[in-house]
Amino acid sequence: MIATLQFTTLLLAVIVCRATQDYAYKDVEEPTLGDSQYGSLWPLPQKVEMSTVAFKLSGASFQIVDAKESSSGASCSLLQNAYRRYDEYIFPISRMQGQNKEKAFASDVSELQVWITSADSECDSYPSVTSDESYELTVDSPVAVLKAPKVWGALRGLETFSQLVYEDEYGAKSINRTEIQDFPRFAHRGLLLDTSRHFLPIKVILANLEAMAWNKFNVFHWHIVDDPSFPYMSRTFPQLSQQGAYHPYTHVYTPSDVKMIIEFARLRGIRVVSEFDTPGHTQSWGKGQKDLLTPCYSGASPSGSFGPVNPILNTTYDFMAMFFKEVSTVFPDAYIHLGGDEVDFSCWKSNPDIQKFMAQQGFGTDYSKLESFYIQRLLDIVTTTNKGYMIWQEVFDNGVKLKADTLIHVWKGNQQQYQAEMARVTASGYHTLLSTPWYLNRISYGQDWQAAYKADPQDFNGTDAQKKLVVGGEACLWGEYVDATNLTPRLWPRASAVGERLWSDKDVKDTNDAYSRLTKHRCRMVQRGIPAEPLFTGYCAHEYKGV
Amino acid sequence: MIATLQFTTLLLAVIVCRATQDYAYKDVEEPTLGDSQYGSLWPLPQKVEMSTVAFKLSGASFQIVDAKESSSGASCSLLQNAYRRYDEYIFPISRMQGQNKEKAFASDVSELQVWITSADSECDSYPSVTSDESYELTVDSPVAVLKAPKVWGALRGLETFSQLVYEDEYGAKSINRTEIQDFPRFAHRGLLLDTSRHFLPIKVILANLEAMAWNKFNVFHWHIVDDPSFPYMSRTFPQLSQQGAYHPYTHVYTPSDVKMIIEFARLRGIRVVSEFDTPGHTQSWGKGQKDLLTPCYSGASPSGSFGPVNPILNTTYDFMAMFFKEVSTVFPDAYIHLGGDEVDFSCWKSNPDIQKFMAQQGFGTDYSKLESFYIQRLLDIVTTTNKGYMIWQEVFDNGVKLKADTLIHVWKGNQQQYQAEMARVTASGYHTLLSTPWYLNRISYGQDWQAAYKADPQDFNGTDAQKKLVVGGEACLWGEYVDATNLTPRLWPRASAVGERLWSDKDVKDTNDAYSRLTKHRCRMVQRGIPAEPLFTGYCAHEYKGV
Questions:
Q1: Do B207 and A533 touch (CB under 8 A)?
Q2: Alpha-carbon dihedral B313, B317, B319, B323, rounded to 10 degrees
Q3: pLDDT tens, position by position, A212-235
Q4: What is the pLDDT of residues A113-140, one digit of tens each?
Q5: Which of A178, A249, A487, B304 gets the highest tally of CB atoms within 10 A of its CB?
Q6: Is A190's pLDDT higher than 70?
Q7: Residue B32 pLDDT more than 90?
Q8: Contact residues on chain A for B443, CB-CB shorter than 8 A
Q9: Are the Cβ atoms of B444 and A443 closer than 8 angstroms?
């Protein structure tokens, strides 16, 4: 056994100079770059004991295998795929070039044994909000052991194991003796991408799912349609994308695309929660579905433009019932996000039929009552599909009656306002998700990951019981200003800050330590092929190869 | 002759929905997207007469050729390379796939004849600040003619010609009958990239030179070294990059790299002006050159850290003479940028030898006099190499005596301050360049290209004679937060706004028309392989293929 007492992370070494931020204004205090005792781990596991004893790993002899005792075996392709993936991350060059094949150096650590401890590994299931993602990792010589009740924890532990491996000055892979016990602080750690304002090619979505797994995110919130375009190809209503997509076949997601994305995500322990936002944000729906939207009036006659979904026609609800029946089978996740935000009442107000309906129902001039009327019926429809639902906070604010398992998604206001909203939502006994401080589409100059990092979803006035109703949060990258050209570097590593906040212990908040680890973590993402942008002046040993 | 009366730009068609900017705050007024009468031309030529008569172009029969009367022929590889490049831009798919080879459709326009009208085409020269970039373009059937006194104008005209070509609904290429007379408003239209804060792989530099040509930029200001790293490999002082680069061979520019970049730029009519900034911004120089930097003192003894270049040692000037002698041969351009900005006096103040020198020279405690002393000697040294120089505004502000052909580069302050500075500089009879409003590293949420677009370098209080001393300007992308992962989408099409401001007539300032043309221009850049980011919600017919 060769053991060195040095913990070097040359593979991911980054020099960040403390030069003055010339030509720029100091917007944020720059954190100091030191070496974290936790190397390049991101997000930080709940409990880490890392020794200075280092073991060598040889690409020729090291392998990831099922533990004999594991309830999961060769038939679990989710794990087999993950072994192959992490093998390639750990030995990106040596295996590909077959360099070490002739000189079969012995590894101090010859195997990582993956041991699924519960009878049902859940290998062929979809992840859910109750999935067990915990794991224990023991790195020792001659074997390392990764124990997890379910495959979901094994996936998280494999990522952690890969983050422990580093390269010494001679390019040799090493790993220190380590004990890790880990589990997520929050069950819902999401990322919202918007494929309506700009179409995102499949390749971009898959690359970002990959990066999500590296950051232990577990929910892809797919804001798939909205006003500008309707790229979801519906089997039941093909006209929706035929007319509503930017282009009927180059800018759509076919049923096969959707299936592939869901499976790619599942293999990484990521849920795909689709959002079909109504009654607002539906301009693109109207192109392929006659009479779905409210005709707006200019004085006594229709103006030719359309408003939100028309809530007074039975055909609307017939359509929604059929549409969400399809959606509930296409997307296996137990939840659907139903939107419900930002309904503009001006068109409804202009329409004489709507006015008549308001009077009949006794709504007076309170159009939020009409909105609630619509949402209530929609929720009833979706309930028949046996799905749970998530909705934006306005639906709660408007007093719509909701099922107890509804997730209220908080996105509005400044810090004081969103904290008050979290308090109100949880005081009403609802589960909640936070996004307000994590609107990553809003960029600013400098190290804005720090503001995202400092926000905490349980930081509001409330009882312990209320805090427990916080299921997690989501980073959101709305699509006005991003497409395939700039989405990925704009998202990473800024979203990584949210990833750690939602996974690690609430006391993990040392910005300097985070800066050190995140700088290395971003270089690792770059080396794995994702153009994650730099946090500050410096370099990666392996720079991005694209343009 | 097939002539249609439609001017469609389906190839570059972009639908930008006027949806509310949901989930975002309105920072800037969104311009309206209409169709510009100028199609996708960017920057707008000085004089355009475009008819609605459209001609067909067939990839199988159309070609770009030297006009018989041209003073430039097959031996001019600059033009031959450009013909090949533009042929590929105009027929990106059909030629590559050889689709049209069998069915040789006739073109309404069968040739673009390129006619260099002056006896010396300057084909084998380097471009300079006095290069003639004017051209006249006549598109008619059966031939189009591009007349230019020099190759530089021909390059600009080829780009314009390629921008006139569009695709109809059936994918057929068309071009309208057009007359263009064009020349740049300013002779110096630069882009600064910083390869010290982050190393930029050659590939990234070349891609951005390519994009510069599409936007009619003609100066690459290469801020090659600075505090954080010294990637320039010097033949005379190899230790500078050996010790000062982030990595001695993966993060350096070898003499061959530099040569290649200069030639690649020349072929596109782009000058390469190198900046070796002293006496500040030189931390990385000190690593490979003993005694070059000033030792800082803490009380009576050296603190171990170093300040600006040591201006009191003869060895400093010996080094500078040898170093700039090399630089003046490596970079053929007539100008060198000598920096001279942001000199921090605290280290000089702490050093007893410097204090003694100050007393001897009678400088009192005015360290700007010491700075001027250094700069004056440096300028004398560089003058012996027969180069002109550019310097940042501080050198002028400090009253250093400058040669009459010196270019003062204005970069500081708010609008009022930089306009006052432009007035002072030109009142003193110096030529000047503006950069303050074009620090594109400073990002903000929304359509910030508009602010860059609205700035005008001649917008200050001064006489016509003063205005004529404005040579142009430069967009700057300082490197704190950009590297290969995010530089290109962050730069384009934001820098395009500066490109039009510096090329087109000063009255070209209709933001709505610009928005329409720029939206199409950015899709064209994407189709040519550059990940130029979107201006707003919408799509390109051909989305970016990378991640």
A1: no
A2: 160
A3: 999 999 999 999 999 999 999 999
A4: 999 999 999 999 999 999 999 999 999 9
A5: A487
A6: yes
A7: no
A8: 443-445
A9: yes
CA angle (B132, B138, B142) in 5-degree steps: 140
Q: Is A275 a residue of the active site?
A: no
Strands A173-182 and A135-139 come out as antiparallel
Give the span between the Cα atoms of B125 and B450, in whole angstroms.
36
Identify the closest residue of chain B to A411 by CA–CA distance.
B23
CATH says B47-182 is which class?
Answer: alpha beta
Answer yes or no: do B283 and A17 touch at CB < 8 A.
Answer: yes
From residue A502, how far is each of A216, A334, A344, A435, A477 by CA, in Å?
9, 21, 33, 12, 17
The yes/no answer to whether this complex scores an ipTM above 0.85 is yes
Q: What is the pLDDT of residue A60?
A: 85
Cβ contact B198–A226 (<8 Å): no
Structure tokens at A239: 């006209």
3-state secondary structure B6-49: CCCCHHHCCCCCCCCCCCCCCCCCCCCCCCCCCCCCCCCCCEEE
Query: Which residues in chain A have their CB less than 8 angstroms from residue B529's CB?
Result: 547
Cβ-based contacts of B227 with chain A (< 8 Å)? 17, 19-20, 22
Q: Which of B69, B88, B342, B543 is labelled catalytic? A: B342
The span from the CA of A342 to the CA of A393, in Å, is 10
Distance (Å) from the alpha carbon of B1 to chain A's nearest alpha carbon:
32
Mutate to test the interface with B, among A343, A409, A485 (most CBs of B within 10 A): A485
What burial class does residue B219 get, using C-beta atoms within 10 Å of its C-beta: 0-12 exposed, 13-18 middle, 19+ buried?
buried
Q: At what angle do helices A511-527 and A494-503 cross, to 10 degrees?
A: 120
Q: What is the mean pLDDT of residues A296-318?
A: 97
**Residue ranges of the domains in chain A?**
47-182
Q: How many CB atoms lie within 10 A of CB A93?
A: 12
β-bridge mates for residue B284, sequence order: none
Residue of A342, A480, A533, A543 with catalytic role: A342
For residue B23, the chain A residue with the least C-alpha distance is A478
Question: Average pLDDT of B344-356?
Answer: 96
A129: its two tokens: 């909000």
Chain A residues in contact with B247 by the CB 8 A cut-off are 539, 541
Q: Residue A56 above 80 pLDDT?
A: yes
Structure tokens at A505: 């212990």
| SS3 of residue B473 by DSSP | strand
Q: Which residue has the tokens 């992308």?
A: B477
Cβ burial B127-142 (10 Å sphere, 16+ → b, else e) = bebebbbbbbbbbbbe
Return the pLDDT at B171: 78
Pairwise CA distance, residues A539 & A89, whole Å: 20
Tokens 């490109």 — which residue?
Answer: B499
**A294 three-class SS:** strand
Distance from CA of B303 to the nearest CA of A (A): 17
CB count in 10 Å sphere of residue B290? 10
C-alpha B520/C-alpha A464 separation (Å) is 54
Residues of A in contact with B251 (CB under 8 A): 539, 543
Interchain CB distance below 8 Å, A444 and B442: no
The answer to whether residues A390 and A407 touch, using CB atoms and an 8 Å cutoff, is yes
Residues 6+ apart with CB under 8 A from B464: none
User: Average pLDDT in the A318-343 region?
Assistant: 97
CA distance, residue A363 to nearest chain B CA (Å)? 27
Reported confidence tier of residue B400, pLDDT bands at 50, 70, 90: confident
The pLDDT, as a whole number, for residue B547 is: 80
pLDDT at B495: 98
Dump pLDDT digits (tens) for A246-266: 999 999 999 999 999 999 999
